[in-house]
Amino acid sequence: RKRRLKARTLRQPKKALPSQRKPRLQNKKNRNIQAINMAINKRQSLWTQVDWITIILYLALMAFGWLSICGASYTFGENDIFSLSTRSGMQIVWIGTSICLGFVIMMTDTRIYDTFSFIIYGVLLLLLFATIFNPHDIKGSHSWLVIGPLRLQPAEFGKFATALALAKLMSAYGFNIHRWKDFATACAIIFIPMLCIVGQRETGSALVYLTFFLMLYREGMPGSILFTGVAMVVYFVVGIKYEGVDFLNTPTSVGKFAVLLMVQVFTACMLRVYLDDRRKTNIILAYSIGITLLGVLFSVYVIPFDVTWVQLVVCLGIIIYLLYDCLRTRIPQYFFILAFSVGSIAFFYSADYVLNNVMEPHQRVRINVLLGLEEDLAGAGYNVHQSEIAIGSGGLKGKGFLNGTQTKLKFVPEQDTDFIFCTVGEEEGFIGSAGVLVLFLCLILRLIKLAERQPFRFGRVYGYCVASVFLFHVFINVGMVLGLTPVIGIPLPFFSYGGSSLWGFTILLFIFLRLDAGRNLAQGTV
To answer: Dihedral, CA atoms, 413, 416, 417, 418, nearest 10 degrees?
Structure first.
């Protein structure tokens, strides 16, 4: 019995004496203080890792953008440009909320963007799909959600969601862009929101998503796909612009003749580049140019006829030749070149049908005006014509802040949104316009540099998505104001009036800045 009581006493935990409890409580308190200090140091090191050059460029562009909105929306006799009843006053609200939004993003853990990428993308897709059935029609578009006095455009937020989804997909283990299944999945992530936005009658905003293919090219997408896209644009422009011009006084259309000749030459060059087959390249070039030249001479000097029929026969012969080699050798490059030739001819002959039967009348007129087929200065060409007058009147140094005449008298429609750059040209002149473009160039080059230094593929892919979106917006917006690109109605980042675009670009940019600030997390620092 004594032994059992002794064993039970030994099993019972000994109570710590008061003198022994204090060190334990002190150690626990020290651990809590240490954790708090580590969290503080973590936040402090975060702000030392932030790329302040990009933030300075961001703030400078927003400041110049606000001055441009003041000039575009100002009317003679106004005394208070800071009033919330004016566009310049409301833009200050959007700028302030954007800065707060950027701060919140910077304080968020980077793992949230990686973990919830697909969830964010799915939520935005549902929002884009629901917007199609939005009853509010604003300037012929159903792309705006009206919530009381607030109007939001989900398409502006879909850009960062799509970029996150692409980054998540392409950073997954085993992803290979050269595998058709993986490449098709990446394309689906891009095209699904595009289809939703087209359903909202916002073709311009949908085209922005095509810029993600620049990122895919950086990550290993075959250059032939990017070249095919450029070739399609060339076919469309040349074929439509010169379709009604006769070649050497024959029934041959210059547009069709040039496009079919380009298809033959491009096909031969692709054999040289992707298969290094100089003999077959020379054979195709010799037969194509020789037979086409004979057809032209016969049409000019013997019997006038449409030489494009001869070119179509030559293209058919090239396609059969490539199909034979593809089946005989089973080399996949032959199949890609064959698909390029067939797709080029099919695209060219369907372009005219799309232009005249699929596109909306205002879109068709805009393209005809851009290509010089029509001169509608009072209709579709009015915006661009007045914008060119405003920019040209600015001269070298501009007319000065709030001294523009074209913008003050409201000659340029949408001069504080899509055509905001004409205000820069009129008030600040060539020097101010060049300065704004230099700021955008510095921002894009800086984003590319930040993307290249990312240690993980997730950050690099997202960074190149951000740089591509900014590049497309700046190039197309400035180009349409100058009459160099079609008027598709997309904003100039940080300049065009509106909360949706400013918030969208801020979220897009600051998520990348947060990822860049946390790039050293794997090495134990933030």
So the answer is: 50
Which residues, at least 6 apart from 221, have a Cβ–Cβ distance to it below 8 Å? 177, 183, 213
The token pair at 393 is: 């009147």
Taking Cα atoms as reference points, which of 487, 199, 233, 492 lies closest to residue 362? 487
Helices 87-106 + 499-517 axis angle, to 10: 20
Cα 501 from Cα 497, distance rounded (Å):
8
- Residue 397 tokens, joined: 């140094």
Name the band, by pLDDT with cuts 50, 70 and 90, for residue 357. confident
Return d(Cα 387, Cα 403) in angstroms, integer: 16
Give the residue with greater pLDDT, 490 vs 150: 490
In sign, the C-alpha dihedral spanning 503, 509, 515, 516 is: negative
**How far, CA to CA in Å, does 83 sit from each of 65, 280, 457?**
17, 71, 46
Counting Cβ atoms within 10 Å, is residue 428 exposed (0-12), middle (13-18) or buried (19+)?
buried
Instruction: Write down the mean pLDDT value for the chain.
Output: 83
Which of the 8 DSSP states describes residue 108?
S
Is 209 a residue whose pLDDT tops 50? yes
9-17: average pLDDT = 52
pTM, 2 dp: 0.82
- pLDDT given at position 525: 37
